[in-house]
Amino acid sequence: PAFLVCKTPTGEGDRVLLLLHEPGAGSNGVRLTMESALTARDRVGVQDFVLLENFTSEAAFIENLRKRFKENLIYTYIGSVLVSVNPYKELEIYSKQNMERYRGVSFYEVSPHLYAIADNSYRSLRMERKDQCILISGESGAGKTEATKKILQYYAVTCPASQQVETVKDRLLQSNPVLEAFGNAKTLRNDNSSRFGKYMDVQFDYRGAPVGGHILNYLLEKSRVVHQNHGERNFHIFYQLLEGGEEDLLRRLGLEKNPQQYHYLVKVVLTNTKISLLFHSDLLSIVASVLHLGNVQFAADEQGNAQVTTENQIKYLARLLAVEGSVLRDALIHKKIIAKGEELISPLNLEQAAYARDALAKAIYGRTFSWLVNKVNKSLAYKEGEFPGWRSTTVLGLLDIYGFEVFQHNSFEQFCINYCNEKLQQLFIELTLKSEQEEYESEGIAWEPVQYFNNKIICDLVEEKFKGIISILDEECLRPGDATDTTFLEKLEETVKNHPHFLTHKLADQKTRKSLGREEFRLLHYAGEVTYSVAGFLDKNNDLLFRNLKETMCNSENPIINQCFDRTELTDKKRPETAATQFKNSLSKLMEILMSKEPSYIRCMKPNDAKQADRFDEVLIRHQVKYLGLMENLRVRRAGFAYRRKYEVFLQRYKSLCPETWPTWDGRPHDGVAVLVKHLGYKQEEYKMGRTKIFIRFPKTLFATEDALEVRKQSLATKMQATWRGFYRRKKFLHMKHSAIAIQSWWRGTLGRRKAAKKKWAVETIRRFIKGFIYRNHPRCPENEYFLDYIRFSFLMNLKRNLPKNVLDKSWPTPPPSLCEVGSTAPGQMALEQKVIASEIFKGKKDNYPQSVPRLFINTRLGNEEINTKVLQALENEAIKYAVPVIKYDRKGYKARARQLLLTQNAVIIVEDSKIKQRIDYANLTGISVSSLSDNLFVLHVHCEDNKQKGDVVLQSDHVIETLTKTAMRADKVNNVNINQGSIKFTVGQGKEGIIDFISGSELLIAKAKNGHLTVVAPRLNSR
Ligand SMILES: Nc1ncnc2c1ncn2[C@@H]1O[C@H](COP(=O)(O)OP(=O)(O)O)[C@@H](O)[C@H]1O
Ligand SMILES: [Mg+2]
């Protein structure tokens, strides 16, 4: 078979694309800066073999590895494949900070690392929701298991987590030491060699958090339980148990600390393996039982039948495996066969008994290991089914499987292991080389064949039906008659003698024959020649456990053993599959699993066989480079196109690098990409346009484009920031402007409305004023009331400013006509005048004067309606100016009688109801007498000549000051008011005289005294 290469010339290859296309600007400057950036990243050698100048030279390849290894740069890429060289020493590159450096970062931006591969797979898993797998290959001791652990740690640290997830993370990490204890052992190649294949799925939920896991284990090297090559050891767990087990525990298990005691353990000096034993006691019982089994010894009796000589072991075994001791003993030395429904029991000879014992030990250990894996799986299982039918998780698989192995003496196990590696190589070819070719074809890109070795021919040699080695082996195992390892070899020679990759002593030519024993066959693996010894092939393939031993185990009360040995096995008539066939089938299932996922590769190498740091054994490395197919890998990478992207994806990512495609390209993505790469200055040989994808030959080209994008992103970010800021400011400005306009218009409206209202008010005021002026002489009505009020207001305001300087000043301002009438008789003015007069008359002279001061004098105390009409008629035109109710004391008996006193223009009139009792013209009024005390009595003195007159009148008024003041004023007798102390004399008709005596006392009393005088007791006032 051949590989294809592009027809276009490959060009010098190391050119860097031009970023900028300024006319006239020399391209050299740009190229130089770009190249210096590149070399800065690849300070030691090249970090990607694709960049190697002389890519066909194995020496250059190894030199690059060596240079980097010397500087502790153990990782190098071939495109996206990671090559790792075991440093055999702790390097400071697995820190948490370093993990963070690789998180979410593009492949080319950081130096090569496991973490880059891990992160890349994880990101594809999250972005495309496509299952991933990381295939870690390399020979024993190359660092596969370490790499697996480091990747798991990377996910444990960098993936998002919830609390529940935390436990899954822990369990994933913790499952490792458990399985390593039971499945790893010290070999010549590796102190911690995995003696089983492991494929581990890590399940991630939609958020990218690890939520579960599953482990598939492959072909544990069980033979190690009963036999180890020189310098190797049994599985770690045995030593850990003996060395780390507490005395108590060991006693219970019937074990001694010294491994020398056990036939199954080689006599090696123990290393310090301090591992705390947290395993379940049932599990440790099983481990101990295997050691005890190894110490079971037999001796032959007379018939040559085996007998157990170590009863003690049987006792321990019975307890540890929880079986009947005698049953176990019998089962170890007998064989039970069921033929035609009949049970046949036959004794075993020594050799057979030892074989049966070892078979049991292997079976117990092997099955327990599977049980352990199952147990781990149960603890890692993720309960899906929140949304049945919808797979909510994606899976990332890690394959850590035994590497290609060549020993001095290679047996069935090596055959299986190396077959497995052939299969993986096939997968690698399938997934990378072949599929690549198919893609070029489907994309319509022309190719030219490139030679590469397809190892399918070897796979077929091993696994082909009927003609393959496994088929022939199975046939030998199953056929009746005496099949032995030798007959198997003969069959092989017969069937595949012409195969170019198969050789035996018989088939070899003279020269090679020397290197082959008669019991051996040689396979020319893709990775090198391996000579296998057929001894033990049949037994190991049969993996036979005698029926009675199986039965015994089925009856065990140790729960683990009980689960490991299923009763259905006993009744199943079908022959169990042979070990090789089982392995073949599980491998083919594994291939299916891997094929369905997107693979990433880590190719591990060991620098020397001595497990030493800083030693780079070129021969050993060359060998590995060869059988790992790294040179081929590189050749294909270089011949083909390193990168491909769908047009849409490519355009989306890089469109900002070209003005025509930025920010949007309206045409077909294909055309957009064409314009874009032209603008970027991609050379003809650097890329090809396929049907749906662009193919880029060198990573460098993409690398440079990525760099350009990085630069562009910076400027875009600045531009976007500026644009955004501008936009933001403008938005803010517009908003403010809008607000200002709103406020302005609202305010203007308010002002306008106010002004209009004012105008309206003014118009109305003026109109009212004019109307009022027109109606000014009308009685008060709605038309003039405003005007009149205004006139009054302004008159009063004017008055206020121009008040007369004293009360006697009569120069009163002229009131407006509407106020005139009121003005002349202004009560206030008159009252004030009267008050002044009253003060002149009485102030300081009469005791009750002060009381009258705060009381206003009023026009009259009696309205016209209170005065009899007859009186009014009698008075005719004579207007009553003042009227007040009074009490008259008659002249003889001083009887008190109610009367009215009226003041007219000309006279004082005393009225009794409808009768005018007495009329005193002012001219006849000679004087008025009053006491100085607080009483209200007064006497009107009348001219005596007038006959008509009845004499002086004795009266009493409640408003004596007011009544007397008004009377005095009317009668012009202000100066004739006498204020007397003691008594008052008065005339009572015809010259007779009467006397009123005034004294002060506690209360008012008016009565006729014995002496005929009227006595008035006036109360003393407080003011006196
Ligand atoms: N990256 C590494 N850094 C330091 N030591 C390593 C590294 N990888 C491997 N080793 C050493 O090499 C030994 C063998 O590695 P391991 O992963 O068990 O090999 P494999 O699984 O390929 O057989 C480890 O026990 C460890 O001492
Ligand atoms: Mg390993």
Automatic annotation (TrEMBL):
Its main location: membrane. Pfam families: Myosin_head, Myosin_TH1. Residues 846-1020 form the TH1 domain. Keywords: Acetylation, Actin-binding, ATP-binding, Cell membrane, Cell projection, Cytoplasm, Membrane, Methylation, Motor protein, Myosin, Nucleotide-binding, Repeat. It is found in: Cell projection, Stereocilium membrane; Cytoplasm. Residues 587-609 are annotated as: Actin-binding. Coiled coil: none annotated. PANTHER family: MYOSIN, UNCONVENTIONAL MYOSIN-IC. This is Myosin IC. The gene is MYO1C.
